[in-house]
Amino acid sequence: MAGPRHPSTPEDRLDSPRYPLTGPSLGPFATSPHAAPLMKSTFCPLPWLHALVEPNGATKLCCISSYARFNDGQLRTVYQEPLADIFNGDYFRKVRERMVSGQRVHECSGCNKAEQSGVESRRQRLVEKWQEGAYGPPPASF
Predict the structure, then answer these.
(1) Please, are residues 61 and 46 in contact by the beta-carbon 8 Å criterion?
(2) Residue 137's pLDDT is what?
(3) CA 110 to chain centre
């Protein structure tokens, strides 16, 4: 079995030009008045900013989300494929698309349940910080 794959050069890093984020642009949407209802209900900046990797190599959207299951129902690990490929792959792109189209994301049930019970969720705190510019400008694309 192959060992963990670690970025060996700057070109292998997630933030390198080799791994541009792909998909429809958020553009001015993120700061438009039309974005406000979405920001309050389904959007979370984390799938644009990071992925969590568990000790077993499995990926998640964040520390409280459920594991990322792909179209075949299987987990993907950083031992099977590079994190950049997972982060920029179909699963993460589809999650981002669902969020900006106003659909709830199943893996985000922790935040969804908190919000339904009237508790401020991690998603809500992160959206507020994102709108304040804590994570830099809104992403140009996903």
Answers:
(1) yes
(2) 63
(3) 15
Q: Domain boundaries in the chain?
A: 45-142
Query: What's residue 34's pLDDT?
Result: 54
**Per-residue model confidence (pLDDT) at position 102:** 85
Distances (CA, A) of 18 to 10, 65, 78: 10, 27, 18
Q: Judge contact between 79 and 2, C-beta under 8 A.
A: yes
Q: Which residues contact 99 (CB under 8 A, 6 or more apart)?
A: 42, 43, 44, 47, 105
Q: What is the dihedral of CA 132, 137, 118, 103, to 10 degrees?
A: 160
How many residues can be counted in the chain? Answer: 142
Asked whether 48 and 139 are in contact (CB, 8 A), the reply is: yes
Helix axes 109-116, 122-131, angle to 10 degrees: 100
Which residue carries 């900006």 as its tokens? 100
Mean pLDDT per 10-residue run, the chain (142 residues)?
Answer: 46 48 46 59 87 90 80 79 89 88 89 92 88 67 46
